[in-house]
Design goal:
mainly beta
Length: 135
């Protein structure tokens, strides 16, 4: 059985490895499906109202925080800020996808309430960190 230290190192090396693809973070409104495609995720229209996916590289700079919570190792991204604008739809969670892929790589937990980003949405409401757990 692996220790938490080993699990944390495995998670960290998998996300901070040159063989790991560049990940794009997007907003979406969907429920989990193990076969989820980006086209079915309910993402705002890219380029409409200022919406664009944000990028997380497989580096220590983009995944700076590692730890354990309730016995599970995790790795947390840097702050991800979506620009203010008039997005085409509300979002209920974040998703990750590999650049060039149509598949959703990971789907975040649901927000407490749907988020509609507008030109007046405050910075704190548009700033996120993505946390991945190894179970």
């Amino acid at each position: 059985m692996l220790t938490q230290v080993a699990l944390g190192q495995i998670l960290a090396s998998s996300l901070k490895n040159v063989d790991m693809p560049i990940l794009e973070v997007g907003l979406c409104d969907c429920v989990f499906d193990s076969q989820l495609q980006v086209a079915d995720a309910g993402e705002p229209v890219i380029g409409t109202g200022g919406y664009q996916r944000q990028v997380l590289n497989p580096t220590a700079e983009d995944w700076p925080t590692a730890g354990t919570l309730n016995g599970m190792a995790f790795l947390e991204s840097k702050a991800i800020v979506f620009p203010a604008g008039n997005y085409s739809c509300a979002a209920s969670r974040l998703f990750l996808k590999a650049t060039g892929s149509a598949d959703v790589f990971a789907l975040g937990s649901a927000f407490p309430a749907p988020l509609q980003i507008t030109t007046t949405t405050d910075l704190a409401s548009r700033t996120f960190k993505y946390r991945m757990y190894l179970r």
